[in-house]
Amino acid sequence: MKEPGEILLVACYELGHQPLGLAWPRAFLERAGYRPAVMDLSVEPFDEDKVGRARLVAISVPMHTALRLGVLAGERIRRTNPGCRIAYFGLYASLNHAYLAERGADAVLGGEAEAGLVELARAMDAGRGPTTWSTATPAPRLERLPFPVPDRTGLPALDRYAHVDRGTGRPELAGYVEATRGCLHLCRHCPIPPVYNGRFFAVPAEVVLADVRQQVEAGARHVTFGDPDFLNGPTHALRVARLLHAEFPTVTFDFTAKIEHLLRHRRHLSEFGRLGCLYIVSAAESLSDTVLEHLAKGHTRRDIEAALRATREAGIPLRPTWVPFTPWTTVGDYEELLDFVEAEVLVDHVDPVQYSLRLLLPPGSLLLQHPAMRPHLGALEQETLTYRWTHPDPRMDSLQAAVADVVAAAAAEAGEDAGRTFDRVRRRADEAAGRPAHASLADRLEPTRARPPRLTEAWFC
After folding, report:
1. What angle do CA 222, 144, 233 make, to 5 degrees?
2. How far is the C-alpha of 230 from the C-alpha of 255, rounded, in Å?
3. Residue 214 in 3-state DSSP?
4. Distance CA 66, CA 354 (A)
5. Is the Cβ–Cβ distance between 174 and 161 less than 8 Å?
6. What number is the average pLDDT over the span 265-269?
7. How far is CA 97 from the centre of its chain?
8. Residue in 24, 69, 43, 72 with CA at minimum distance from that of residue 457
């Protein structure tokens, strides 16, 4: 099976980035002698000719949104080419193996899946069909792979994807790389621990830099390190950042790191800033220590406040992300989060969608067996591929739906000031709490104020 296009790699959504989930498996397959085609349905149309030529179609599902879109894509692929084999691979593949098998997947690959894709291609060459897993759990592969440089040939250009806005209102092209895969930690709400079980793998620095290089040559002026936690390996992270800055001193970058890592490695933050770190994303999740304990986040509210001080001292804006709706979050907790955002002048640092996010419980979530979760837990919803849960205070479920509507309306009205969206969210929270409305924040904000840097894509799951 060495003909071009007999293997088709499909992406549906990768947080607005040019899909590394296609570029890396493509490089693995090409090293093995194959010539796969690629199709990114997030920015280009469904290509029936590509699908019709394929004997094996592998759909990348690194996140929940990608999985839901990937299932729909798989159904269309099956209708278009009934004789092809369909595989799903990525973080959310092994979490949803049973469902995917029921929907006709011929193979489900989790963990470090690229070697498995090569094995599938070789099995088909040898006339052996890939195994369909129906009831048994396919163990995710957790072995260190010999990483090639990702092959981005044929992917849509970077200008089709998220840009970086440095606060000037003039977006620039952005690239995306990963220096590590997996994670050391076992946060209960995160989809990574059920797959990686506390393991992570470092990508050789020269491979990371080669991937940066090809994206800079394509016009990128900023790079996102998409590692679940860039500081899982702080020595490796510093080496990669130093090499990047030495070769491309004007290229900036951002990364994601746990609150506890920002505090543990705070002595390095100033250097990251000098090397070009434009901002840091951190999953703060909640200000409630009760919620943080149930999620096993490894930090407290005081730690969030300390991390905010540490990043400010280093001159690096912090962009916290939140899960403000959990079974343990009270109306008072939600109001306190909004108070915190206002008091700490974070309204432009928090993407409005963050005010609406509801705890996601995919199959395999460590929270499913947690005693604090059980009283609220419902059945698995096949449509959403998550477990249903109900808040003990009906006001919170109603508030989440109302805030989601506010955020959706703001997204549809591109360019709305973040303060105006914040005010509408706060109005819904005041109504839920039965208290008088707060004074408008937007009326006190300067319309021409400097905004912190950000990517133009705000979705995180």
Report:
1. 50
2. 6
3. helix
4. 19
5. yes
6. 98
7. 20
8. 43
* Single-letter residue type at 229: D
Query: Rounded to the nearest 5 degrees, what angle is found at the Cα of 369, between the Cα atoms of 366 and 374?
Result: 125
Yes or no: say if 354 and 286 are a contact pair by the CB < 8 Å rule: no
CB atoms within 10 A of CB 236: 19
- Count other C-beta atoms under 10 Å from residue 81's C-beta: 19
All domains in the chain, ordered by first residue: 7-125 (3.40.50.280), 158-455 (3.80.30.20)
Q: Which residue has the tokens 């006001």?
A: 395
What integer pLDDT is reported at residue 300 of this predicted model?
A: 98
Cα 104 from Cα 69, distance rounded (Å): 15
- Give strand pairing partners of 164: 172, 455
User: 149-172: per-residue pLDDT in tens?
Assistant: 999 999 999 999 999 999 888 999
Residues contacting residue 51 through CB under 8 Å, at least 6 positions apart: 8, 39, 57, 77, 80, 81, 84
Length of the chain equals 461
DSSP string, 397-419: HHHHHHHHHHHHHHHHSTT--HH
Give the span between the Cα atoms of 18 and 161, in whole angstroms: 6
* Mean pLDDT across the chain: 94
Between CA 319 and CA 453 the distance in angstroms is: 9
Q: Do the Cβ atoms of 185 and 198 come closer than 8 Å?
A: yes
What is the token pair recorded at 6? 């007999």
**Angle at 129 (CA atoms; ends 124, 132), nearest 5 degrees:** 135
Q: Are strands 7-11 and 85-89 parallel, antiparallel or unpaired?
A: unpaired
Q: Tell me the pLDDT tens digit for each residue of 312-339.
A: 999 999 999 999 999 999 999 999 999 9
The β-bridge partners of 180 are 202
What pLDDT is attached to residue 262?
Answer: 98
Q: Return the structure tokens found at 43.
A: 């920015």
